[in-house]
């Protein structure tokens, strides 16, 4: 999902410039990028690079081009490099600029992205989700090969959520900022998409096979658990976030109990209905036998 | 929320999801699942009223086939990781009410309802078959086979309904049109939400 505020045209020109810069980069960056950047309106190459698939934060990869990478891949590389500078600069254009510098690109590369750091955060979240999927896939393979025991559901959910939240630890200082940015209206579709697909992944690997309304309740419950645990983690100062994991354990246990209670309510309800039906049949039989006599 | 792992099994039922046209397959499986679920409830409603009449065994037989269809779509839904429609609880009630309501009009009423619904469903399956054939008959071979089989079963139900005097039902054409309109709306909604 391309951010809606930076006109694609400008971004395309900027990245074309960067391509030339990185191709010609043999000498220090000091003078040439500035000149090229200033003169780019007239100097701009007529051929545009092929429009790769729009950078999508739902984990779909870019295409491998023959000798040069697609714009999406370049952006991914810059954002990945920028993550290293987040603890210091926050989720900002400065971090992206620093990241671009480590790749040997001009700091003007940050101009490719929206200034509030949205793409950086979405990229990070997408990366974490991919890592989580790979982790869960690995565990599943181990269980299938008999190398590991299959975990009970509550344990599985606890471990999956913990693994995912632990990925935030290096960035925990700046994460509250990220959360608030993810809640901005123009980011909500993408961030919601990422959240729902992550939760769906976790349930899928947990072995959920529901095909009725439970599909929705399961996911809603787990989303609630994940979000509240994430918020607790922001304020947790205990060693290795023990308080957070204990909170998580309690919430998962609550959810399991809720499921049990729902089942109990349902079976009690069914028993009551059957009792009433039986009573009604008995009474009507008594009536008919009385009238017959 | 599944409790104690009773309804959970290791996810080994998987098809390769790469190269599959997700949006198209998503819709197809979601709406077909909703359709079979609804059909199940319609027959359940009809049985509730006409279960002990002469057409009881016939309706039971058609119901059992629909149960098999639903079971198949449950499997496909998990295999392709498709989400069910949010409207399932609604189709639960609406289907039962339609079945029971049409059965209260008599045996012919129930048959008329069956004819209307099965005709809608077969047309719908036919257009899905066309879509899949246009996409890639090889890639979706298994799915195509299943849908073709189910289309034939629904066609059979339709013919059984006609054989049992559906057309003699009270206000047959009005009933049929109304029910088919409802089916079209249900299909439209279930594909999307």
From TrEMBL, chain A:
GO CC terms, sorted: mitochondrial inner membrane
Residue stretches making up the Ubiquinone biosynthesis protein COQ9 HTH domain: 71-101
Subcellular location(s) of the protein: Mitochondrion
InterPro entries from the UniProt entry: COQ9_C, COQ9_HTH, Ubiq_biosynth_COQ9
Pathway: Cofactor biosynthesis; ubiquinone biosynthesis
Main location: mitochondrion
Stretches assigned to the COQ9 C-terminal domain: 188-259
Keywords attached to this entry: Lipid-binding, Mitochondrion, Transit peptide, Ubiquinone biosynthesis
One Gene Ontology MF term: lipid binding
Alphabetical GO biological process terms: ubiquinone biosynthetic process
Region (Disordered) location: 16-73
Pfam family, one: COQ9_N
Top-level lineage group: Eukaryota
Family, per entry: Belongs to the COQ9 family.
UniProt subunit comment: Homodimer. Heterodimer; two heterodimers of COQ7:COQ9 come together on the same side of the lipid pseudo-bilayer and form a curved tetramer with a hydrophobic surface suitable for membrane interaction. These two tetramers assemble into a soluble octamer with a pseudo-bilayer of lipids captured within. Interacts with COQ7; this interaction allows ubiquinone (CoQ) isoprene intermediates presentation to COQ7 and facilitates the COQ7-mediated hydroxylase step.
Chain's role: Membrane-associated protein that warps the membrane surface to access and bind aromatic isoprenes with high specificity, including ubiquinone (CoQ) isoprene intermediates and presents them directly to Coq7, therefore facilitating the Coq7-mediated hydroxylase step. Participates in the biosynthesis of coenzyme Q, also named ubiquinone, an essential lipid-soluble electron transporter for aerobic cellular respiration.
PANTHER family assigned: UBIQUINONE BIOSYNTHESIS PROTEIN COQ9, MITOCHONDRIAL
Name under which the protein is recorded: Ubiquinone biosynthesis protein
UniProtKB/TrEMBL annotation, chain B:
Cross-referenced CDD domains: DMQH
Molecular functions per Gene Ontology: 3-demethoxyubiquinol 3-hydroxylase activity; metal ion binding
Signal peptide: none
Organism superkingdom: Eukaryota
GO biological processes: determination of adult lifespan; regulation of gene expression; regulation of reactive oxygen species metabolic process; ubiquinone biosynthetic process
A Pfam family that the UniProt record links to this protein: COQ7
Pathway: Cofactor biosynthesis; ubiquinone biosynthesis
InterPro entries: Ferritin-like_SF, Ubq_synth_Coq7
Cellular component terms (Gene Ontology): mitochondrial inner membrane; nucleus
Keyword annotations of the record: Iron, Membrane, Metal-binding, Monooxygenase, Oxidoreductase, Ubiquinone biosynthesis
Database matches in PANTHER family: 5-DEMETHOXYUBIQUINONE HYDROXYLASE, MITOCHONDRIAL, COENZYME Q10 BIOSYNTHESIS PROTEIN 7
Record's protein name: COQ7 protein
Provenance organism: Pluvianellus socialis (Magellanic plover)
């Amino acid at each position: 999902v391309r951010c809606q505020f930076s006109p694609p045209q400008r971004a395309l020109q900027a990245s074309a410039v960067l391509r030339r810069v990185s191709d010609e980069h043999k000498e220090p960056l000091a003078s040439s990028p500035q000149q090229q950047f200033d003169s780019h309106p007239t100097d701009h190459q007529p051929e545009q690079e092929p429009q790769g698939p729009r950078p999508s934060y739902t984990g779909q990869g870019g295409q491998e081009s023959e000798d040069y990478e697609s714009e999406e891949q370049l952006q991914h590389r810059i954002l990945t490099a920028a993550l290293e500078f987040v603890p210091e600069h926050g989720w900002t254009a400065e971090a992206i600029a620093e990241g671009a510098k480590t790749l040997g690109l001009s700091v003007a590369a940050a101009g490719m992205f929206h200034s509030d750091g949205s793409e950086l955060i979405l990229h990070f979240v997408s990366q974490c989700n991919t890592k989580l999927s790979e982790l869960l896939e690995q565990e599943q393979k181990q269980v299938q090969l008999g190398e590991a025991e299959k975990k009970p559901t509550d344990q599985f959910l606890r471990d999956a959520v913990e693994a995912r939240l632990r990925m935030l630890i290096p960035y925990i200082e700046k994460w509250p900022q990220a959360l608030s940015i993810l809640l901005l209206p123009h980011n909500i579709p993408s961030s919601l998409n990422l959240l729902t697909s992550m939760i769906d992944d976790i349930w899928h690997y947990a072995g959920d096979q529901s095909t009725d309304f439970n599909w929705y309740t399961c996911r809603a419950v787990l989303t609630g658990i994940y979000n509240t645990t994430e918020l607790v983690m922001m304020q947790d100062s205990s060693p290795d976030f023990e308080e957070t994991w204990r909170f998580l354990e309690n919430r998962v246990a609550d959810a399991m109990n809720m499921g049990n209670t729902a089942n109990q309510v349902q079976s009690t309800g069914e028993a009551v209905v059957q009792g009433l039906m039986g009573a009604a049949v008995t009474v009507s039989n008594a009536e008919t036998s009385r009238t017959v006599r | 929320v599944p409790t104690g792992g009773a309804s959970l099994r290791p996810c080994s039922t998987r098809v390769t999801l790469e190269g599959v046209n997700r949006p198209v397959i998503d819709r197809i499986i979601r709406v077909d699942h909703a359709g079979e679920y609804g059909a199940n409830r319609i027959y359940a409603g009809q049985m509730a009223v006409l279960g002990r009449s002469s057409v009881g065994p016939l309706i039971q037989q058609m119901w059992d086939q629909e149960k098999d269809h639903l079971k198949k779509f449950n499997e496909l839904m998990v295999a392709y990781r498709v989400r069910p429609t949010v409207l399932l609880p609604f189709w639960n009630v609406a289907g039962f009410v339609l079945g029971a309501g049409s059965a209260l009009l008599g045996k012919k009423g129930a048959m008329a309802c069956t004819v209307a619904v099965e005709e809608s469903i077969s047309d719908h399956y036919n257009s899905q078959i066309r879509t899949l054939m246009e996409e890639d008959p090889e890639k979706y071979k298994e799915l195509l086979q299943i849908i073709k089989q189910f289309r034939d079963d629904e066609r059979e139900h339709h013919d059984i309904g006609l054989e049992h005097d559906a057309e003699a039902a009270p206000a047959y054409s009005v009933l049929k049109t109304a029910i088919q309109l409802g089916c079209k709306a249900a299909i439209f909604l279930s594909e999307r939400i």
